[in-house]
Amino acid sequence: MFCRVNETTSQVIAQVRQNENEAFTDRVLSSINDCIKVLDLDSRLTFMSEGGQQIMEVSDFNAIRGCPWPDFWQDQGNLDAIAAVEAARAGQNASFMGSAKTLTGTVKWWHVQVSPIFGKDGKPEKILCVSRDMTQLRDAEQALMSLNETLEQRVIERTRDRDRIWRLSTDLMLVAQFDGIISAVNPAWTQALGWSAEQLLDSQFLGLVHPEDVDSTLAAMSGLENGQTIPHFKNRYRHLDGSYRTISWTAVPDKQFIHAVGRDIQAEEEANEALRLSQDALHQAQKLEAIGQLTGGVAHDFNNLLTVIRSCSDLLKAPNLEEHRRVKYVEAISSTVDRAARLTGQLLAFARRQALQPEVFDVCKSVARIGEMMDTLTGARIQVNIDLPAEPCFIFADGSQFDTALVNMVVNARDAMSGAGRLSIKVECAACPTADQPASLSDGDYVTVSLTDTGAGIAKEKLGLIFEPFYTTKSVGQGTGLGLSQVFGFAKQSGGEVLVESELGRGSCFTLCLPSAKNHEVVAQDKHYAPIALPGLCVLMVEDNQDIGTFTRPMLEQLGFQVLWVKSAAEALHELSGNPENFHVVFSDIAMPGMSGLELSAEIEARYPWMPVVLTTGYSTEFATIAKDEAHRFDLLQKPYSREDLAAILHRAVSRTGEQ
């Protein structure tokens, strides 16, 4: 028996290494996500990696083994695949991108790299094809492209909209530098102000601003330069025709420019002014109606006062009149004159035309003041009872309108009682609202003024009409119907309410409910001076009225003054020019022929600034106007005045000069 032994160790080792390499290659191919395929030179599939089969959704590669690879592509993809195979046959690399379906029909986008596999002879013997799934990247690119196109379209549309707004807007649009140089304006400038864009560009817009508005405009520009937004700002711009228009601006800054939008509100401003004038006229009409209610009673009261003065004057003429009777008649005349002065002062103050001016005042004092005219207003057949609290009741409202409202309510009550009955007026400080009061009154403290009459009352169906303007149940010529509408308007304007309780045949109760003013200043009482003798002082009295001068000079002499009486401002200046140190005070009327007392005072202040001046006038409106001006340096005394009033004001004027 023969045994032949061959040495195969190296072969075995080589086979093992080959098997290991193939196993390693299989693991590498299975882990790659690309689809790796091997084609023969006729482009038929001979191999597909395990990872590639998963991507191509191939469950059995044998089912497609030997199939022409280009047939998996359609349209342009098929042409690109054939061209890539031809390039590989020629020993060249090729690549393309296209879409192809998987075996289950899913369309995917592929990037394909085709390369030749060379044999030992250096010629291509097979073709390597690597396909990478680019579907997600392609979808992302498509989405990004779509987004970019959308954004670009939006930018175009917004730019178009912005340009359209810039051209068509009726509002003024401005782009300017921080120094006021205009960089751009829209066509609305021409429509509103007449200026063309060519006239405005590179010019200074402050040159168009009204001189009175330049400072406020500069302040707004400073705020913009500091990064502030200006939400509401008004100034006046010059029109091409030289007139001015009021413009309301909104402006914002960026790093280089001011961007502003302005609206022409001239018509609105004029309409508001017209409305204000109409409201003032309505308030005055309401006041004049109330004054008309007072006129008849005032004439009656004045006739009574004149009767007292005339009777006392006749009695004083009697011979051998006893001293106590003479004193009695003189005091009666004096007190009657005081009553007449108060009556005219109240009527003139009530009738004074003035702008609405809210202020803090004591309702009790106002009611008491109107109460002094109550008999004049209601007549003798109406019994009036006024109930005032011991403590003051302050409100913040227009005092003149409050007086008008009170008079209108009194007149309404008087007419409801047909001139006879009882009227109760009560002032209270109360917390409102209570359960039976309307929700229009917020929580808080209120001052209530209630007027209760014994008149005919008001039917329920008419309660909702009584506050309407021009509604009245009176006959033609008996009233305009504005009275209660003024009361209602005043209450609402002051943050309050007017409440009505009424029943036919049992009278009515009107309650004016106004918010209480917590924070107020206690006004000091006027100082009263008793007649004080001022011996050795000389008064230069300027009075053109002979009767007034005849009685005023002895009154001054009784106070201890030496008096030089002249009848014009020119004479007064002549006397002062000689030796002004001879006089200690000038006492002058305001209304005189030629130079007025006000002009005289100004001239004295310029020439003799140390000289005290006291002016007097009988015009209530003039007195009120001058009294409001705190800039003047003279003292003011209203006619008619008593000896005590004259002594007090002269004492104050001379004493103040002595202190200086």
UniProtKB/TrEMBL annotation:
It is an enzyme of class 2 (transferase). Its EC number is 2.7.13.3. Residues 297-518 form the Histidine kinase domain. InterPro entries: CheY-like_superfamily, HATPase_C_sf, HATPase_dom, His_kinase_dom, HisK_dim/P_dom, HisK_dim/P_sf, PAC, PAS. Residues 538-654 form the Response regulatory domain. PANTHER family: HISTIDINE KINASE (PTHR43065:SF49), SENSOR HISTIDINE KINASE (PTHR43065). NCBIfam families: sensory_box. This is histidine kinase. The lineage of its organism: Bacteria, Pseudomonadati, Pseudomonadota, Gammaproteobacteria, Pseudomonadales.
